[in-house]
Amino acid sequence: MSAAARRRGSEAFFIQRCQMKIMGMILLSPITSSLSSTNHYNSISSFTSSSSSRSRYKHKNDDASSSFRNIDDALASFNHMLHRKPLPCIIQFNKLLSVIVRMRQYYDAVISLSKQLELAGLSPNTCTLNILINCFCLMQHVDLGFSVLAKVIKLGLQPTIITFTTLINGLCKAGEFAQALELFDDMVARGCQPDVYTYTTIINGLCKNGETAAAAGLIKKMGEAGCQPDVVTYSTLIDSLCKDRLVNEALDIFSYMKAKGISPTVVSYTSLIQGLCSFSRWKEASAMLNEMTSLNIMPDIVTFSLLIDIFCKEGNVLEAQGVLKTMTEMGVEPNVITYNSLMHGYSLQMEVVEARKLFDVMITRGCKPDVFSYSILINGYCMVKRIDEAKQLFNEMIHQGLTPNTVSYTTLIHAFCQLGKLREARELFKNMHTNGYLPDLCTYSVLLEGFCKQGYLGKAFRLFRAMQGTYLKPNLVMYTILIDSMCKSGNLNHARKLFSELFVQGLQPDVQIYTTIINGLCKEGLLDEALEAFRKMEEDGCPPNEFSYNVIIRGFLEHKDESRAVQLIGEMRDKVASKKLLLCNSPTRCLPSKSCYVLEAPSDIWDLGCIVFVMLIGKPVWDFNPETTTEELLRKIAHELMKIPPDDLIADFSDAADSTDNEFCAHLVLKNGVSHKKRSFIPLLDQMTLKS
To answer: Where are the PPR repeats (predicted)?
Structure first.
């Protein structure tokens, strides 16, 4: 079989495999939320900027560069031309300078060579000066690019559309979007009509600045001006819409583009596949992949890397490994981003051995690991508590000439703190400063939490105050860690002060920090203050959740204030969607210590009565779930409490079917043989029924 045939076979196999795997996500597993959104250590790109990073326009006459193997050959050719008599025309030199520019790293050499041309008496033309403007913009010196524009005008030359487009592109890359738009308008005012390249450049800049709506408006304006958008223009907008999570709008633009007879490219399809997958729209993503390949538009490195990243985030590492194998069979060489994605996937599955194997394969294949490669593997070792290997890898990274970043340091500090090795964590924290790396909020947070967990509240508080003396400002996470630790250690006054400090710092407490301080107040028996904080929570636009309700309900029950506990149960039933009651350490101490039973609040008064009854008695109803029927619940109560024959209890339930709520609740309490508590139970259950 020929190499071409094998390649076609691999392509067909890949297409079928990916379609099956994407579709399989619908059938085999629920879609989980991305862990990386909240994890500081998962520092790996999800290829969200890959489409826009592609080269948009190919230079013509690229074959001119094939005559030069390196910069030395190009310089030798320049010197040869410079000493010819007569001198070649400026056009020939411009071609040579353009070739050197496309070598992508010798912009300063081009500037120097252009000066030699002027010294030799060869005047630059507009094309020469456009090349210089491009060099300055690529070197991020757009201001010097404008000085060349001044020279164009001074020499009596006419700026061209390329002159303005190059400067607009330089301004956009420098983040000067307002100036780019101003130059665009000035160009039009001078009578220089923008072409599709100019429009696409400014549209790309707007999209990168998050002004997708303005970019869409400019495309419409572009058509009205008689300049038709091309596939790059539309693909730029599609990519931006997908990043803004406006996938339906992106699909509309995609359909409109095809209706106008413009054929999509791999960039267009890859952006849409990524956007659809971000919303777990696997069926549509599979259809898009099928459409793409049916048009003989084969996936490139960006598409492959995207698919690997998606599979890894969904926990389908084997499928991601299959994509890696297929892409190599198709002749597409993985890059460091591809390998990093798969290593990250293995690490998330705690398969650090496989991640290390892939790391070694990457090196063997000549792909040099970057700082993210090492950080991912270090994090993987830390996750499985193999701290020695993590330290060894950290040192290896430095030995290889790579500089550890804040993520690398923080990952190791976090691992040391989790293992209780605070001395090593502090030493690494100091080394971080010594080597010129500033800790971020996450670094301080993990060290702060490490101190608190080991009971070193003084050190934690000093670290907190020291951080406030830096350029960083503490966030809610840090305040929550400290307030929780202060409450648990009985330092309620310190917790109160920290809570008040939040408002001074301009921070709005969230549900977690409110619940933490309410819990601390309840434990100290300060129920009125706890209830006041609970009410203030809602007034501040932070509605309590089921955990907040359970904390304060448990606080009232533990301090024998059953009346207000029942009121809050009724309130919780009306306001909170999940309605989970957590039975933790009941007041009668019949439950084991540190036990916690979760019961879904039922929809009718009978089941709610049973739950309150169980809470007050202090014995759990085992195996309760939202599907449990009233009859099943009554049988469980009869069995767990007084060993009453279930049939008797159910018969009494049937007899009381026509009774009022209060009568039934009283009947239920009396039948369960707890007459010594009936005087307190019946009023409680009466109050509960009034809340229903």
So the answer is: 125-159, 160-194, 195-229, 230-264, 265-299, 300-334, 335-369, 370-404, 405-439, 440-474, 475-509, 510-544, 545-575
Which letter, b or e, does each residue of 2-28 get, where b requires 16 or more Cβ atoms within 10 Å of its Cβ? eeeeeeeebbeebbeebbebbeebeee
Q: What number is the average pLDDT over the span 64-93?
A: 82
CA distance linking residue 562 with residue 553, whole number of Å: 9
Q: Check residue 83 and give its pLDDT.
A: 87
Average pLDDT estimate for 534-550 = 87
Distance CA 308, CA 224 (A): 41
pLDDT tens digits for range 367-390: 999 999 999 999 999 999 898 999
| Lookup: tokens for 206 | 């707007």
What CA–CA distance (Å, rounded) separates 205 from 37? 26
Contact between 128 and 114 (Cβ < 8 Å): yes
Q: What share of the chain is helix, strand, coil (3-state, %, to 5)?
A: 70, 0, 30
| Assigned token pair, 123 | 């005047």
What's the rounded Cα separation, in Å, for the pair 29 and 385? 28
Chain mean pLDDT for the chain: 77
| Element containing residue 571 per DSSP (H, E) | helix 562-575
With vertex at residue 584, the alpha carbon angle to CA 582 and CA 586, rounded to the nearest 5 degrees, is 120
pLDDT of residue 292: 87
Query: What element of type H or E holds 550?
Result: helix 546-558
* H, E, C per residue of 339-408: HHHHHHHHHHCCCHHHHHHHHHHHHHCCCCCCHHHHHHHHHHHHHCCCHHHHHHHHHHHHHCCCCCCHHH
Task: Give dist(CA 660, CA 26) in Å, integer.
Answer: 49
Rounded Cα–Cα distance for residues 162 and 196 (Å): 11
What digits encode the pLDDT tens for the residues 25-38? 433 333 223 323 33
Structure pTM? 0.62
pLDDT for 687 equals: 45
pLDDT tens figures, 83-139: 888 888 999 999 999 999 988 888 888 999 989 998 888 899 999 999 999 999 999
Residue 537's beta-bridge partner residues? none
CA-CA-CA-CA torsion sign (241, 243, 246, 248): positive
Residue pair 339/308 in contact (Cβ under 8 Å)? The answer is no
Residue environment code for 620-637, b if the CB has 16+ CB neighbours within 10 A, otherwise e: bbeebeeebeeeebbbbb
